[in-house]
Amino acid sequence: MDIDLKLLYKKHNTWIDIVQSFGCNKETAEDIVQEMYYKIKKKLDTGLDISYGEEDYNYYYIFLTLKTLFFDLKKKESKVEFCEVKEINNIISDSLYLNYDIKFEKINKELDKLHWYDKKIYLIIEGGESIAELSRKTHIKYYSLYNTYTKVKDKLKQLL
């Protein structure tokens, strides 16, 4: 028997308390619990059965889902770098003085200096063709194309 989300929602405040016990504020806990409902619904639609009889469900599975969502959020937050508004204004004002036309011209001059093969491979891949597709079409080994593209890209990065 499929578990009804209404049955899970009856313990909504309990789920929020559990997430808050991990160290979240109430608003974040609410978001995580809502995400849990969504994840459980997707799993139920694919055939997951977490019910225990007619009126009960696997609390441990719900707990693990909440804990996993909490840890995922913390991982994402650890990758975010915070800075003050003054720093952002400095970055924006510095970027206004960059002359992109000069950089573009430098890149084109450097590309013209390259061997025709290296330049062509770089331009094809930068144009949207995947290395795997190009390898299949030309019968050139994937790693040969990859190494050529990477070599040119690294050279252009050093130029900038």
Notable characteristics:
160 residues; mainly alpha; 2 domains; elongated
Kindly describe this structure.
Helix 7 packs across helix 9. The protein is elongated, with a radius of gyration of 26 Å. It folds into two domains: 74 residues, no CATH class; 63 residues. It has 160 residues and is mostly helical. It is 74% helix and 0% strand.
Short description:
The chain is mostly helical and 160 residues long. The protein is built from nine helices and no strands.
Largest sheet: none
Question: What's the structural domain tally?
Answer: 2
In N-to-C order, the SSE pattern is HHHHHHHHH
Radius of gyration: 26 Å
The averaged pLDDT comes out at 84
Structural class: mainly alpha
Which consecutive residue ranges, at least 5 long each, have pLDDT under 50? none
**What is the number of helical segments per DSSP (H or I, 4+ residues)?**
9
Instruction: Tell me the fraction of residues in β-strands, as a range.
Output: under 5%
Ends: how far apart?
Answer: 62 Å
| Global shape | elongated
Question: What's the β-strand tally?
Answer: 0
Q: Percent range for helical residues? A: over 70%
Topology:
Elements: H1 5-9, H2 12-21, H3 26-45, H4 59-78, H5 85-96, H6 100-113, H7 116-126, H8 131-138, H9 142-159
Helix pairs in contact: 2-3, 3-4, 7-9
